[in-house]
Every structure is written in structure tokens, then in C-alpha cells.
Amino acid sequence: MPKLAGKNSKKRIVRLIYSGWGQIKIRNALDLIISVMSCLPPFQNALLLTQALTHRSYVNEQSELTENNERLEFLGDAILAFLVGELLYQKYPAMNEAELTRLRSNLVKEEQLAQLGIEIGLGELMRLGKGAIKDRGRSNPTLLADTFEAIIGAYYLDSGLNAVKNYLHGLFIPVASHLVSQQSESPSFIDAKNLFQQWALANFASNPEYAIIDVTGPPHAREFTAEVRVNNLLYGTGKGKRKQDATKAAAEDALKRCQLQ
């Protein structure tokens, strides 16, 4: 995981982030905080990192501050969606659109981002108001996820898209691999045609055969009917506005008949 660039730089950033603390408290916490910050992206601009860690509850209690992390959170959310989508597109060429979308949603949902926030130490680093701290804000999943997004937005402004991409790959590839292995047995995760093919090969050592058996409707609104057979035995039929949709529906019908779905 990327490291911040040297202990002296870390000390300067810590003092900036915790400028409201007394010097004794900063010295006492310095080693712990530096250890936590080693999991963050290597920022060049400490002000951007500081803003990314600053919740509006903290700004409301500091008359000299005006900037919180909400705009950076907005930017980070968009960058995460794009880069995680690109990562999955490259890593899983056999997945269809629905599968990729479902996997990306699981990777960027609040619970997952909050867990990553915990792992990189954001709970200890977030600048929160006294009320938010009292309400256990440092372990609040929403605050952790929002701050994680803000960190990504700030790092993009600090170091560019490729730097963010490299950092995110280190975080998300292991999580994606775990989710895929965990969900790959679920019919709702694998495309129906792929799942039925696996079943047919396992039971008969034969691939399913699909055929369009009927076409109805005017040219601008066709409806196709498909069937799927294994060793010439009919297992399912389905309809759709496209041939692809009809064959998928036939596979889903076959899965239901075989009690696989």
C-alpha cells in the first residue's frame, strides 16, 4: 500500500490536521497517527488531505474555517464509480453488463467503503465536531464512507487519475476477488445461460442448444420465442424483444424446471 513520503512530512501534515489540539496531545498521539496515515495515499498537498478529513460538524465549531469535505466527497463518488467500473471491465471479460453492474454496486456501497475507511484508519483521522464524536461518529459507517470518497476526490486533485487508479487497485482487487468467489455459486450472480451450460456439462457432458422457434409482431416490435435443448430433449422456452433476451429467458425457464433457480 502506498506510503506518505517521510516522517518529517507526516509530522507537518499531522500538525496541520490537528491544529486545534494542544502541542502535548499532538506529541503524545504523533506515532499512532503517523502509523495510521501510512495507509493513506501519498498526498503532496497537505491542505487537500486536511479538507478531505474535515466534516461539516468540525467546521461549524471553528469560526476560522469555511471548507468541509462535501464537495470532495461528490467528486470522489464519481471517480470511484468510473475507476471501479474500469477495473471490473478489465479484470472480468466474461461478465455481462448486469453482472458487472451488480459487482460494482457491491464494491462501492456504503458498508464496503466504510470497511475500507476503517482499514486505512479514517476513524482516527476524521476531523469531527464534539457532538459528532460524542455520537460515535468515528465508527459511523456513513461518515467513514463519505470521508473515504472525499479522500479519493482530494487525491485525484492532488496527483491525478493514474495515481488514484493505482491506489484503488490495491484496495479493491482483493475485495472484488473475494466477492466473486463468494457469489459465483449464486444463480442471481451468474448469467442464466452460463449457469445452465455448467449444469448441462456436469450432468450430460453436452452443451445446451438454443433455437429461435417463432417470431411474431410487426418489424418494429418483434417478439422472439426461443427454446433450449440438451441431447435433443427440451428443457425450457422463453420470449423476448431480442433473440438474446429470448434465449436468456429460455435458460431461466430451464433452470426453474431443473430446480436450480
Describe this structure in a few short sentences:
The chain starts with 6 loop residues before the first helix and ends with a helix.
Remind me, CATH topology of the largest domain? Answer: Ribonuclease iii, N-terminal Endonuclease Domain, Chain A
CATH hierarchy, class of the largest domain: Mainly Alpha
Low-pLDDT stretches = 1-7, 21-30
Shape: elongated
- Number of helical segments with 4 or more residues: 13
How are helices and strands ordered from N to C? HHHHHHHHHHHHEEEH
The portion of residues forming beta strands comes to 5-15%
CATH architecture of the largest domain: Orthogonal Bundle
**Quaternary structure annotation:** single chain
Helical content (DSSP H or I, runs of 4+): 55-70%
Distance between the termini: 41 Å
Assign the CATH superfamily of the largest domain: Ribonuclease III domain
Rg calculated over all Cα atoms? 25 Å
> What's the number of domains?
2
Largest sheet: 3 strands, antiparallel
Mean pLDDT: 84
Organism: Microcystis aeruginosa PCC 9443
Subcellular location: Cytoplasm
Enzyme class: hydrolase
Family: Belongs to the ribonuclease III family.
